[in-house]
Amino acid sequence: MSGHVVPVKTYLGIFVALLALTALTTGVAFVDFGELHTGIGLVDVIPLNTVVALTIALVKMLLVILFFMHVKYSSGLTKIVVMTGFLFLAILVSFTLADELTRGWSPEAGGWNTALPAILPLIRGLC
Amino acid sequence: MPGQEIPAESRVNYLNASYGVKSWLLTTDHKRIALLYLGSITLMFFVGGFFAVMMRLHLIEPQGALVAPETYNKLFTMHGVIMVFFFLVPSIPATLGNFLVPMMIGARDLAFPRLNLLSWYIYIIGAAFTLYAVISGGVDTGWTFYTPYSSTFSHTSVIPTALGVFITGFSSILTGLNFVVTIHKMRAPGLTWFRLPLFIWAMYATSIIFILGTPVIAITLFLLGLERLLHIGIFDPAIGGDPILFQHMFWFYSHPAVYIMILPGMGVMSELITCFSRKRIFGYTFVAFSSLAIAIISFLVWGHHMFVTGQSIYAGLIFSVLSFLVAIPSAVKVFNWTATLYKGSISYDAPMLYALGFIGLFTMGGLTGLFLASLATDVHLSGTYFIVAHFHYIMVGGAVMAYLGGIHFWWPKITGRMYPDGWARFAALVIFVGFNLTFFPQFVLGYLGMPRRYAVYPGEFQVLNVMSSAGASILGIGYLIPLIYLLWSIRYGPIAGPNPWGAKGLEWETPSPPPTENFEEIPVVTQDAYDYANVGGSRV
Lengths: 127, 540
Ligand code: HEM
Ligand SMILES: [Cu+2]
Description:
With 127 residues, chain A is mainly alpha-helical. Chain A is built from four helices and two strands, in the order H-E-E-H-H-H.
């Protein structure tokens, strides 16, 4: 509620940037970036198109929140409130992925066969 | 109170300040909006209760006494949807909360009075959609709207019902927003955070859940609509979705929502226990922070509803541990209320009877929650009547008891009139007995393996089912009695006076009913909450 007045030029600039980024998203959808192979268990294959699209979306989101929603000019308390929202979104996504990504480990899927050799030495070490 | 009182009628108060339908439908007075909500949720309570009675009547006979199985599915769905989203979620916040938050903090209204009125209209629109769904054939998915019942395989009014719940969610968000801003910005001079009544802390914690959780259920139901109407694959594996994703998103809101339903009740409890044992609350800071702890941890446990649905057992392990953690702040409260009673000078007025009932019933509900949070026992108990008993002990034995206790406690403030005390105590007793007779047998039934949500059951379960149905009729009568004498008291009850219980708190320093602006002069607070050690105040 601080009396900060944002010049119309800034709004227009952000608006144009958002349009440009939308065009960019559409554009890159036609390019195949392929996949990144990390070799790390849960995140072995990463489809790069998704990464690119989400990165652009993130930038757009930040522009809207910081300028259109005036968070850049707001008090610390407001900034904390906004960040809390994202913290809870992160909880939703990460705990859901904690299920999604480890489902394949379950005994029915033969997961214990791979998990046990890794865990057993640890348990023996503790005893 | 001796005769120096001005009779309520001759003084201008929020009830007689203006007359006519318009003065109510366009009011921005938080106290009148509280009454608008009170009327609407009471209606919904009895609609939802009607479905429950039909169910219990049906289950008197193993093969089902009353309705077709399809109808039975609709009965439990409509019962759940209405009771959860249209009664229990708004119950205490929208009625007692709306009425009391400004009064308890020494303010003239909420921060955004018109937003407050808007929230009621949004609630009404949402409720209208849902009632339309009832009339247009009903829904059979269960209140949880699980896919694929609600997507691929449903032929009932899922969309209007879900839309109703979606819309009503916004009224919760607005109420939560209003409370947070009001509590931050509008406290009377001297009213520091740690002098606030614990009811306010509970409302604050509830509001946080409203604001952070409700958008997720809205998005979830929106995605469900997208899938049904446009066939975008989100939850249906045949078109690339994941049905368990629905449960993740649903419970991310709905577990915190169970705390939306109980936290306000816990706030009411702290007020009742202190007043009727004439003591300061034991461990104020612990009780205050346990509300916040519950609000936050409750967002980390939702997977305990999904132990048997194909969720990864590794995630299950983590959700199980976290569920045990959320029981700690709940237990802190129960212990602190009990410790408050110790050496108190306890009186058994009607509100206190509800409060004592709460302690016992909530404890049973919470402890059985721990059975369910243990992975191995949950495999046996999940999907049985044990679940039904668990959450009714908390939501009805806990939340509804606290709600009724609160209504009885603040009724003289709200209306300026007393209700007949004998009847009120009698009703509290009938409700307690009826409740236990209804739901205790369900623990046993569930443990023996009777599944929930079935229209028929094996013959050996009949005795326990009949007990449960008998209890339900007693409970139903128990709820009707207060409806009658409370309505009666509005006209014929004796004048209550400003503070019939000799209670502490700013709301009791105003006349009953309070004037529209609550306080002629904004009070200055110099004392901690529940300063009962120094009461000079007399009791009637
Ligand atoms: C003391 C903390 C609590 C724990 C550890 C707990 C634990 C659980 C667990 C594990 C389940 C899932 C059981 C299953 O479906 O197999 C459950 C179900 C349920 N609980 Fe609790 N609970 C607690 C408190 C509450 C509270 C405070 C409420 C409501 C005010 C509540 C309402 C419910 C409801 C509505 C369900 C069933 C939902 C459905 O499937 O329809 N619980 N609880
Ligand atoms: Cu839960």
